[in-house]
Amino acid sequence: MAQFIEVIRLPGFVEYGQAMAIQRERRIAVEEGRAGNALYLLEHRPVITLGRSARRENLLLDADALAEQGIDLCETDRGGDVTYHGPGQLVAYPVLDLRQWRQSIRWYLRQLEEVLIQQLADYNIDAGRIEGLTGVWTAGRKVAAIGIAIRNWVTFHGIGLNVHPDLAHFDYIIPCGVPDKPVTSLHQLLGDAAPPMPQAMNDFEHHFRAHLGT
Q1: Whole-model pTM?
Q2: How many domains does the chain divide into?
């Protein structure tokens, strides 16, 4: 079932707390019927976030040491463990009323994964799922992370697709608490053939609309 989705691109490098506030305001408006479904596309300033299931041992530097590297540390209300966001990573936050699609968390997660899998197929990257893990992987490496939250069947938080981030920043964490699965990026996989961020955002929006909206 396709529904209209307003796509909003936030300029510059967005602070994590600012993005959380924007999502919260829109989520409440959607819950109350004052606004429609939305998809926010953006890049964050460097930040490590701790999800609801985060274990501190998966954070390899403390807040002071991270600050020396120019990286913020934030607790958040999404699902999942510890992850990194920063320039060069495409972040997508859908705020959707799943009552207009299907009231199923599992279904929604699989839809997000499929959007990314189809986008990566456009770049001739053979990507897919790993049983028991959330996200999108290629050759055993995670190229996109997914961490969501749902309240009253309205979604928030979302995905991070590594286009051309500083992969060294992932060395400060055990990404998503999975120690034996390193991360990768489109640039690492494709070199100069990797899409620039505006194109990656366009491609994500195209496939997102194809699966979920108009």
Answers
A1: 0.95
A2: 1
Q: Find out whether 164 and 146 touch, Cβ atoms under 8 Å.
A: no
pLDDT (tens digit per residue) in 8-34: 999 999 999 999 999 999 999 999 999
For residue 115, give the CATH number of its domain.
3.30.930.10
Both tokens assigned to 86:
């920063």
Q: Token digits for 185? A: 């990026």
Quick check: is 176 catalytic? yes
> Could you tell me the residue range of the domain that residue 67 belongs to?
6-212
Query: What DSSP string runs through 14-79?
Result: E-HHHHHHHHHHHHHHHHTTSS--EEEEEEEPSEEEE-TT--GGGB-S-HHHHHHTT-EEEE-SSS
d(CA 180, CA 182): 6
Q: Looking at 91, 112, 159, 176, which residue is catalytic?
A: 176
Quick check: 79 and 147 in contact, CB under 8 A?
yes
The H or E element that residue 11 is part of is strand 6-14
Distances (CA, A) of 164 to 19, 108, 118: 21, 26, 19
User: Per residue in 55-102, pLDDT tens?
Assistant: 878 888 888 999 999 999 998 888 778 889 999 999 999 999 999 999
